[in-house]
Amino acid sequence: MATVVYLAGGMRNGPTRDRIKAALRALGVVTLDPNHWADECKNDPQLYTNRDIEEIRKCDFVVAFMTRDNPSGYGLNFEIGYAVGIEKPVLFLNLLGNDARQRYFGMASVSARTHNLLHPFLDNLRDWVKGGS
Questions:
Q1: Pick from 28, 19, 30: nearest CA to 119
Q2: What does each of the 133 residues of the chain score in pLDDT, given as a tens digit?
Q3: Rounded CA gap, 5 and 2, in Å?
Q4: Exposure pattern of 59-95 as b/e (b: 16+ CB <10 Å)?
Q5: Cβ-contact 24, 48 below 8 angstroms
Q6: What's the start-to-end Cα distance of the chain, in Å?
Q7: Could you count the other beta carbons within 10 Å of the beta carbon of residue 116?
Q8: Domain boundaries, the chain
Q9: Which of these, 61, 110, 51, 50, lies nearest to 83 by C-alpha position?
Q10: Which terminus of the chain is more exposed, N or C, with fewer CB under 10 A?
Q11: Which CATH class is domain 4-129?
């Protein structure tokens, strides 16, 4: 059975999201991506939140990433916190660097396996999918 991963990290597609998704695809991972249900839920925060929670429950682990183009990261912090609360492992790529918002990700960083560089993150991702978290 394929590994199932929930992809947390902002609704914009960009090079980081694309690289992560390509790595997951190459590993044969089933990706639960909020971008796939964003349009149907965009006007109903309760529906969107319920869908996120439902999908996080289904996954084997969460792959989370925070980039500077994410306007806030509040949703990401919620997704990480919920996953940790139900004992789902979280692999977190934090690319904020010295961005002032960095201070809002302390709890997320200590609750997850956290990386600040893409290549070690992708190496760790391969290990997790192969069963060696």
A1: 19
A2: 889 999 998 766 678 888 898 999 899 999 998 888 878 887 898 998 999 999 999 999 999 999 888 878 888 999 999 999 999 999 999 988 888 988 899 999 999 988 888 888 888 888 888 875 5
A3: 10
A4: bbbbbbbbbeebeebebbbbbbebbbeeebebbbbbb
A5: no
A6: 17
A7: 13
A8: 4-129
A9: 61
A10: N
A11: alpha beta
pLDDT the model gives residue 3: 92
What is the model's pLDDT at position 5? 95
In this structure, are strands 30-32 and 61-66 parallel, antiparallel, or unpaired? unpaired
Facing residues of 91 across strands?
Answer: 63, 113
Token pair listed for 116: 């600040």
Under 8 Å CB-to-CB from 15, ≥6 apart: which residues?
none
- Give the whole-angstrom CA distance, residue 110 versus residue 50: 25
Q: Are 88 and 32 in contact (CB under 8 A)?
A: no
